[in-house]
Amino acid sequence: MLDALSPTITLNDGHTMPQLGLGVYKTTDAEATHAVSFALQHGYRLVDTAAMYLNERGVGDGVRASGLARDEVFVTTKVWFTDNGYESTLRSFDESLDRLGFDYVDLYMIHWPAPRNDKYVDTWRALERLRDEGRARSIGVANFHAKHLERLLGETDVLPAVNQVELHPWLPQTELTVFDRSHGILTQDWSPLARGHVLDSGPLAALAAKHGTSPAQVVLRWHVQRGNAVIPKSVTPERIEQNIDVFDFELDADDLAVIASLESGERTGVDPDDRN
Ligand SMILES: NC(=O)C1=CN([C@@H]2O[C@H](COP(=O)(O)OP(=O)(O)OC[C@H]3O[C@@H](n4cnc5c(N)ncnc54)[C@H](OP(=O)(O)O)[C@@H]3O)[C@@H](O)[C@H]2O)C=CC1
Ligand SMILES: O=C[C@H](O)[C@@H](O)[C@@H](O)[C@H](O)C(=O)O
């Protein structure tokens, strides 16, 4: 069992969260169990799932199989947008906890604001209640544009701890990251490798050669060096190990300029305003 390899970040509610963790989107229960247990034994301490991934059972089993105690692992899950709304969120949360086999999660997030349904403020009130009850230690949002956050901040009492958004060299989300930070909200980057597609960019191969790393490590180093949290997904043992091995080298200003030149605005997922 390796000690924790990722530094932690203190959230605006005082809890600490590992900066880098494992994503498990598009993995079956069985794949999730293997990947989670392997990752936890190799230095990871955070796993990111969602009701929509249909693998919370596998994630819970992976945590139990790892040999770590529940309180050594930071588990995050999310309410899917079709369950946005007060009562439906409380129900969905109970179902997630049941599938995970835990009596709390470390971070519970609104998966998408789904602005046309106009239920994300009610959803947030349900999360505030879960936080008061201690069943969700921290609460956050995902896929929120600044305008969605502004509305939440204006109408509710508890600040989201995290805004988990699509972010990678093609889509660095600099303005949103600055907005989040100005409110003490930590940006957590999803699809940090643009689902693997950004890794073929020629300039990354040169940076990887310069640092004696892989292109994925260069990209993940860029994420952590910007001060964001990040959740790369892999079910491949060597990649799982490689992806957290990014805390002992530094990208310099020239490297950062090369990565900045990859910005194209291209998303791999939908724009949050279009998901309803
Ligand atoms: N809140 C939201 O709406 C969303 C949240 N997420 C979260 O973010 C996580 C990460 O995003 P995701 O979309 O999965 O995509 P990532 O950007 O993490 O890319 C994952 C892909 O890259 C491959 N890969 C991983 N590591 C390496 C490596 N070192 N070298 C080469 N290829 C590699 C993986 O292959 P393999 O597994 O075969 O090794 C997989 O195909 C998700 O799993 C989920 O937890 C994702 C999407 C939306
Ligand atoms: O967490 C997973 C996501 O929200 C998933 O729904 C999206 O990444 C989707 O595939 C998209 O294309 O936008």
Characterization of this structure:
The protein has 276 residues and is of the alpha/beta class. The protein has a domain of 190 residues: NADP-dependent oxidoreductase domain (TIM Barrel, Alpha-Beta Barrel), CATH 3.20.20.100. Helix content is 39%, strand content 15%. The protein contains ten helices and ten strands. Strands 3-4-5-6-7-8-9-10 form an eight-stranded parallel beta sheet. Strands 1-2 form a two-stranded antiparallel ribbon. The protein is globular and about 55 Å long. NADPH dihydro-nicotinamide-adenine-dinucleotide phosphate binds next to helix 9.
Q: What is shown here, in short?
A:
With 276 residues, the protein is of the alpha/beta class. It has helices at residues 29-41, 56-66, 86-100, 120-132, 146-155, 174-182, 202-211, 215-225, 237-243, 253-260; strands spanning 8-10, 16-18, 22-23, 46-48, 74-79, 105-110, 136-142, 162-166, 186-190, 229-230.
Features:
276 residues; alpha/beta; TIM Barrel; 8-stranded parallel sheet; 10 helices; 10 strands; binds NADPH dihydro-nicotinamide-adenine-dinucleotide phosphate; binds D-galacturonic acid
